Amino acid sequence: MKKGKEIRPHIGIFGRRNSGKSSLINILAGQEVSIVSSVAGTTTDPVSKNMEISGLGAVVLIDTAGIDDEGMLGEKRITRSREVIKTIDLAILLIINNVIGESENSLIGEFNKLDVPFFVVHNKSDLQPLLPATILKIENELQTIVLEFSILQLTSVEPLVAQMRNFLPETAWKPGTLVGDLISYGDTVLLITPIDIEAPEGRLILPQVQVIRDVLDHDGIVAICKEREVDAYFKKMEPKPKLVLTDSQVFLKADASIPSEIPLTSFSIVLARQKGDFQHYIKGTPKIGELKDGDRILILESCSHHVSCDDIGRVKIPRWLSNFTGKKLEYDVVAGLNQVPRDIHDYALLVQCGGCMITRRQLVNRLKPAIDAGIPVTNYGMAIAYVHGIYDRAIKPFLNMGGEKADYL
């Protein structure tokens, strides 16, 4: 299953074998996108389907293996299915024959632990109708709703789609502005975008494109230049920008070139505020100064990309951290949403990328194990700003906003 490739609501479909998960996805898609069979265990691994659902829009539906699978291979399939919970914005739990057993209760426990909203669909109601006792159990004990559903007697999917709309959190659709609340109508935002070996051929990187769109959506004006042209820009252009965003790799150059009265931050930091746990980033970043010899750092790249000889996550950040602290540090780098190779308690610090390729839910759940374990977390841009001595300036634009300073510091 490809995870973290679509910034759109992710919806997981869960249930026992032959509960009708794949059939439900096909009905929602209006076409056969999942294999349907009377043989139990047809779906063996989570499979994501990008689709447009009438009345809902663009979503990613994830078909999972049966939660009652058996044997050693079945246990592995269940484990893979449960890993999906960390990546989704909404779960739909299918039951049949009014059965809610240990498998369902265990799964619901995971939904609640990760704060994933869910509702229940009683499928195949043409064979056995939904009983009042089941409704009471779901509403009173599970604190959610249940829909009666039968593909064979289906007249409309609108009741199901309506509940999907109701249960999907707003952040799944609208992750929040990047810089829109920092500017006013007609303000200019200057973007400093290096064109180096890591820059993709013929285009800008996604965070830069996202900021451009966000500025335009908030009636601002975008100016773009490379780091070498910043000085020329300030000599020629009026009025001066209301805000400057830079690629974190040229933070020092930007800091020297941008007048101190103009707010300066980075693409990675505005992404951190939009998607990550910003309060914990603020608290965790200064812990860089407390690292000791032998400490192990976990670096999370939440996408897969071509690794260059001077890669930001694998080469530059480890070099900067080691040089700043003067300590002998160990590093693990994990790409995409792959499993962390060690127990989370083995790490003294977690450094997360901006997360431009994943949803907010996926990023928050990526950080959660470290936060729950009391391990400091930071972000690429914030860590780079800290080791270069410009951390206070880089986060200042956000600390001046209503009441946030008291929460972060």
Describe the structure.
By secondary structure, this protein is of the alpha/beta class. The chain folds into three domains: 10-173, P-loop containing nucleotide triphosphate hydrolases (Rossmann fold); 180-270, 3-Layer(aba) Sandwich (Rossmann fold), CATH 3.40.50; 280-391, 3-Layer(aba) Sandwich (Rossmann fold), CATH 3.40.50.11410. It is built from 16 helices and 14 strands. β2 (47-53) and β3 form a beta hairpin. The model is unreliable at 1-6, 34-43 and 402-409 (pLDDT under 50).
How much beta, percentage-wise? 15-25%
User: Widest sheet: strand order?
Assistant: 2-3-1-4-5-6
Count of distinct strands: 14
Contiguous low-pLDDT stretches (5 residues minimum) are 1-6, 34-43, 402-409
Helix-strand layout with pairing:
Blueprint: E1 10-15, H1 21-29, E2 47-53, E3 57-63, H2 71-83, E4 90-95, H3 102-113, E5 118-122, H4 132-141, E6 146-148, H5 158-167, H6 170-173, E7 188-192, H7 206-217, E8 221-225, H8 230-236, E9 243-246, H9 251-257, E10 264-266, H10 267-275, H11 278-284, E11 296-301, H12 312-325, E12 330-335, E13 349-352, H13 360-372, E14 377-379, H14 380-387, H15 391-399, H16 404-408
Parallel strand pairs: 1-3, 1-4, 4-5, 5-6, 7-8, 7-9, 9-10, 11-12, 11-13, 13-14
Antiparallel strand pairs: 2-3
